[in-house]
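Per reviewer request, we include the raw input and output of the structure prediction for the construct analysed in the revised manuscript.
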Amino acid sequence: MRGHAYRSLDDVTQTRPAAVPVQAPPGRRHRVHRAWFVAAVTFVTITGAAAFRSLPGLLLDPLHQEFGWSRGTIGAAVSVNLALYGLTAPFAAALMDRFGIRRVVAAALTVIAIGSGLTVWMTAAWQLLLCWGLLVGLGTGSMALAFAATVTNRWFTERRGLVSGILTAASASGQLVFLPLLSWIVERHDWRPAAVTVALAAFAVVPFVWLLLRDHPADVGVAPYGAREFVPKPAPVPGAARRTLGVLSSSVRTGTFWLLAGTFAICGASTNGLVQTHFVPAEHDHGMPVTTAASLLAVIGVFDVVGTIASGWFTDRFEPRRLLAVYYALRGLSLLFLPMLLGPAVHPPMLFFIVFYGLDWVATVPPTLALCREQFGEDSAIVFGWVLAAHQIGAALVAYLGGAARDVFGSYDVVWYASGTLCAAAALMALVIRRGTPAVHALAVS
């Protein structure tokens, strides 16, 4: 066993040398805990800012037709975006500890708006890589699920599974519910007005974040939801990059980290990289109108809300490893059947797939986040950021390989089958993730 032990935030506060618990400053009592208002602000912020995650799948055909770029080239820009989305996340979690949630999120939204807005003037493929790949990738990485993990860890000691499920639903569903609007704009008014719409949506969320979001419960004089004692606001943590890399160096020495990262890479490959990026072009290949296909993805987003919140509720009550195994197995099975369901019109079997896949879209996030907290304690948000980086690397690879496979084989069938097989492997990997041992917990409170 490694000499270093991870401790939860609760453990740290309970073992402070002060003999007398710190009491919350006197103030007005609220019937509804302030943490729920912060969660609501975070939910609306993530949902409203998610328009920029909806556009890449709609750009493949318009950019191919206007500039003659191959789908592999366009997919490469999407891959850079997805990879940076993941690689930025752990550093963003550390930056939030250093500079505060509000500043980091507001800056990220501004970068996203600039990157999306600049795409309307691009004339070469490298400009797509710069604007949509680099700038939007960096901005979205700072608004990744590590943001939701940080809010959950700071403001809640109870109902964490439920809250992480709700905020995850905002992130994933927000990406999909904008699709019908953006696809309508692309079809009627070209892709440039859609890019401008994304930029304006990101700018519009900035004042909302700055005025209403708070960094820590101590900022408003309350204890985290479910905590028995008031938790003082910790001092800013310097050396964000050094701390992020240090947490990575420690966590990669454990088999649990690699299992979590591997399963989450397959999760990203089978959702953001595959279905979100290539479902609309695949259906269009079979004669379905783009707006109709985008609407089906929006329906996935609606059912994702139900599935992810339910997954958070289950995570508070059931073994997260078994939940992950079930989720990945069912997802893989559905992907193996998808090539037989694609066609020019919507039919009942396709609707069943959409509902089924929607319920499972990111249901994997609450149990994965719970396992990070269980194994890595107070560093769990940063560790989850690195696990999310693996998620996005998997998504980036399939975003590129899916487009390349379409160029080579003339269809996406081989990609659907390969992703279904990978999901079966992820189910097996989830089952061998070890439980936190009593010795680890004993060290955590020593």
